Amino acid sequence: MKLFSSLSALALCASAALAETSTIVHDGEYQYLRAQFGEQWDAQDVKIEQKLEVLRDANGGAPNFLYILIDDVSFGQMGNRTMNYVTGFETPNINNFAQEGMSLMRMYTEPSCTPTRTAMLTGRHPVRAGVDEVKVALVGEGLSAQEVTLPELLKEVGYNTSHVGKWHQGDIEEAYPHNQGFDWAAFPLHQQVQLSLMTEEAMRSGNMLGYAEAGQNNQFQLDQRFKPYGLVTGVEGEAGGTAREVDMEPGEVWTQAKYEAMNERYQLQIMEQLEGLAAKDEPFFLQYWPLYPLNFVYPEEALSRNGGFHADKLQLLDAWIGDLLAKLEETGEADNTIVMIMADNGLMYHYEGSSGFNQLIYRGGKTQHLEGGVRTDAFIRWPAAIEPGSAAGDIFHVSDLFTTFARIAGATDFIPRDRVIDGIDQTALLLEGEGNGRRDYVYVYEGPVLRSVVKQEFKMHLPAAGQPGAAANVFNLYRDPREEHAQVGYSLWGGASFQDMVKRHQLTIAQYPHLALGKDTPYEGIDNLRPESLQAREVFQSWQPAK
User: What single string gives the DSSP state of each residue in 223-266?
Assistant: First the structure.
């Protein structure tokens, strides 16, 4: 067995042993809240556990999970009929779904794809795992085997697990989903910049500049290796085995048509996986992370009134999600399946207008700590337990899903106790409704830098080094959701309180230092690398420092 598999198993065993003698390590701010509400929460947890036992008994065991994470869609752009008329594209299936469960109205994510996905998988701010940015080409980095993921927890209590779609957790073997807790996975090694933007079609649409050879005559070009080349596209793999690249021949040029075929293949595979998992006796955790709506070529014929290259694909994706939810009904597992649909961060504002998306309510988008970058739509349905048509204004962070789903599945004992877990158990919020959340704060990073702190309805943009808190910009997010009008009246009293929050956060980091990002030779564990991919790896490795 490979070293990373052994490390992962050791981490899980150690976590289980620690769970018997210690509590989950949370950030300093949570402990500060717990000092005020701990007794109340403990009493409520006794009732919550009783409810969960009743639900398990009534439904023949722990619930299934179907988790759908959509790429780069800002708050208000799906799940709302009114906004469909404003934006000119339709999301009727997601709209209906939103009315069948709870709308989490203050869902916070990380500012970009990779960090949000890391937070969900590990229950930790991605900076704690060494993850701080989105990568495009070969990097020889990825999610470390030392991290313990949600599917790994669920495997410990008998779940079958599958992943379909975007992964974006690294190009090294230990980071692949089938080595991070999934029994089976179909996924691209990289992401949509490679798959839809680094194409001749995107160049001719005016969206990618300087990459396609046809876009300039390259008269004085010397370096033939400056532009990414030979990148692995989509692979499939099973736990304990290696992966294989699919639908790509040696020397073949990747095109927009290949990208569209990949999306269609993933939709077929998620339907197949759902049907297969539902037919088994064990509960399942099924993860669908679509590549659409990220797309950088206008459709030949628009589906929507909007017609933008992102908006149009969101309307198409909505139809696909409708098909998936209908398939879930057909399996007979819908009543005992927790389904969640949400986005990973705000719109790719760099293409605002032509993409068909715009900033709507909150200012900013992908890569930014502004609300438009980290506030997304999020809807969760569990017919057996969550009130239909409900909404919650309690603050929720994407890392909370790790701890909450583990609690519902009965896997809390396998959560590691040797590191900070930022995810808060929000089961009470889901089962008891609005006002039962256990978080009123969020720390918002841009890469490795803490850029802002949210507390209740207030948000401080952190001051420059050496500047006092009283000089920092503080906003009331109810009165000023676009963060455009800082008021000194908030800063003068809030500066000290926000600084104390940052200090509590820093003290926890000092006690539990960040883990290192996984690093290794890229593309290992893929059986059928094309010659051009082998060359790309060889060139990349040629200038790496000796180990």
Answer: -TTSS--S---EEEEETTS-EEE-S--TTPPP-HHHHHHHHHHH
The H or E element containing residue 73 is none
The residue written with tokens 């090694």 in the block is: 189
- Say how many CA atoms lie within 13 Å of 118 toward its Cβ: 30
Q: What tokens does 67 get?
A: 């988790």
d(CA 234, CA 446): 28
Chain segment 279-320, per-residue pLDDT in tens:
999 999 999 999 999 999 998 899 999 999 999 999 999 999
In whole angstroms, give the CA distance from residue 227 to residue 388.
Answer: 50
Tokens standing for residue 425:
């158990």
Q: What is the dihedral of CA 124, 127, 133, 139, to 10 degrees?
A: -100
Determine if the peptide bond prior to 383 is cis (ω within 30°): no
Q: pLDDT (tens digit, 9 = 90+) per residue, 319-351?
A: 999 999 999 999 999 999 999 999 999 999 999
Would you call 285 helix, strand, or coil by DSSP? strand
pLDDT confidence bin for 17, thresholds 50/70/90:
very low
